[in-house]
Write a structure and sequence with these properties.
Structural class: alpha+beta
Number of domains: 2
Largest sheet: 5 strands, mixed, barrel
CATH topology of the largest domain: BirA Bifunctional Protein, domain 2
Low-confidence stretches: none
Helix content: 25-40%
Strand content: 25-35%
CATH architecture of the largest domain: 2-Layer Sandwich
Strand order of the largest sheet: 9-10-13-11-12
RNA sequence: CGGGGCGUGGUGUAACGGCAGCACGCUUGCUUUGGGAGCAUGUAGUUCGAGUUCAAAUCUCGGCGCCCCGACCA
């Protein structure tokens, strides 16, 4: 991708200091645009980051047997009445059809679709376990949208639902999902803490929240400084400075963002939708199930919230919108330009994705500032000076360490 | 939903009730390319409605919108 072709631009000026840091950086860098309170457009760069996050999630969900599907966003009222949530859920958007008197729910979650859906294909214990997931848009009529992309009224989410014969099988799968979640967050550059929380109005059982430690967070948790163990202060009896029940490390109270949540649903929704199958003894049985969510667009904001400095965003490698940000200096000179172009082409041949700052009318300073702001994990500079040595300059955004290196050495090094 | 704040060119801001100004951006031209370039040039604005007043960006009432604190939070 050439910077000269990007229809978005970076912005020099601060957008609104009162908002979240991640919001400011994502707007300045040209990743997102706010359309109203709680609704955002993802611009080319932001969209690439979202796809990268989604693909990481896909890989890890597929690895634990999840099958990807895609369900609709508008749901029939009757399904929501069956679960009792039509009347009880105050964040539920309801939309009227212009024809007749039909009202639909705009999906804040998908139990009301996925349970009747799976029911259609579930006849025997031999069909279990089943695990399905989707990457989709959710709508929640939040009383107050806040913190930029971290808490919107429309947002991206991965939701997975699993169905099992026994609570034991569910809990085994639940643990597998927990590990998969930690892996996903690690790949996104976040060292997530796992807290035990209440199940909300969802289930009488417990749930686990995955927390990213950040001042921008809305939750206060008490987290171990050594391992992933943590408790939400809403339910915790641990005190600041006490020792971790799991590893003995020190527990600290910290603010954090909820980036994932998994629930043991028991047979709640299975019963609501009379989801019966025949077990080994020929009896009718209701499966137990779990659900597993990750806010994908919120994750974008959370990563930026955690990974930035005074110059801009610092993308962790796996979610960086490009492998390399290539900066061409002095491109008005023909030989420098063709050198830069050949570097761009060669990196592409080596299957590296490159954002190439090919602007001939921008000063060098401007390009460095833009690159640091946009935060691509690796930067490569070409210039007249470097051309003379037949070298390029290689720099990692996270530590700013600079290396002079030949192009082929560079490719070998980062492939 | 309770409380508070704010609404001025594309962006960020200034203006006692009395000529709407600045910076950035953008246009055009020339010069510039190793850390947000220089000169010249042009461009564009008071959220909406009602009211008070000789006169409203400024005061009053209402609408709409956004932000913050709290409450809420699959």
């Amino acid at each position: 991708m050439r910077v000269s072709n990007l229809f978005t631009k970076t912005r020099k000026l601060t957008v609104d200091e009162t908002k979240a840091k991640s919001h400011e950086l994502l707007v300045q860098g040209g990743y997102i645009n706010q359309e109203m309170a709680g609704a955002y457009s993802l611009l080319p760069l932001g969209n690439i980051v979202l796809r990268k996050i989604e693909n990481i999630i896909r890989e890890e969900m597929n690895a634990i047997g999840g099958q990807e599907i895609l369900m609709p966003s508008i749901h029939p009222q009757s399904n929501w009445e069956k679960t009792g949530r039509w009347g009880s859920m105050d964040i539920l958007f309801k939309v009227d059809s212009r024809w007749g008197n039909t009202t639909y729910a705009l999906a804040p979650s998908h139990e009301e679709i996925v349970f009747p859906l799976v029911k259609k294909f579930l006849f025997s214990y031999k069909d279990l376990p089943i695990s399905v997931y989707q990457l989709q848009t959710k709508f929640r009529d939040e009383k107050r949208a806040k913190s930029g992309i971290i808490r919107g009224r429309e947002f991206g989410m991965k939701d997975m639902y699993s169905f099992h014969e026994t609570p034991e099988d569910l809990s085994q799968y639940y643990e597998k999902a927990k590990e998969a979640y930690l892996k996903i967050f690690r790949r996104c550059g976040i060292d997530a803490k796992v807290t035990i929380a209440s199940g909300g109005d969802f289930t009488k059982k417990y749930s686990h929240e995955f927390m990213a430690i950040s001042e921008a967070g809305e939750d206060l948790i008490i987290a171990c400084t050594l391992c992933t163990y943590a408790e939400n202060t809403e339910v915790s009896e641990l005190e600041e400075g006490s020792s971790c029940p799991k590893c003995g490390g020190k527990m600290n109270a910290v603010k954090s963002i909820e980036i994932g949540n998994i629930f043991d649903l028991g047979d709640k929704f299975g019963r609501d939708f009379e989801m019966e199958y025949t077990d080994r003894e020929g009896n009718k049985k209701i499966p137990v199930s779990g659900c597993y969510g990750i806010g994908t667009t919120r994750l974008i904001g959370s990563i930026v919230e955690i990974s930035n400095d005074e110059k801009g965003i610092i993308w962790p490698e796996e979610v960086s919108p490009f492998d390399i940000h290539l900066i061409g200096l002095g491109l008005d000179k023909e030989e420098v330009k063709s050198f830069a172009e050949s570097v761009y082409n060669r990196l592409g041949e080596a299957k590296l994705s490159v954002l190439y700052d090919d602007r001939e009318d921008a000063s060098g300073g401007f390009k460095f500032k833009d690159a640091d702001l946009m935060g691509v994990a690796k930067q490569v500079v070409v210039s007249e000076k470097l051309l003379a040595q037949n070298k390029v300059e290689y720099k990692r955004r996270e530590n700013g360490k600079v290396e002079l290196i030949s192009l082929e050495e560079l490719i070998k090094k980062i492939k």
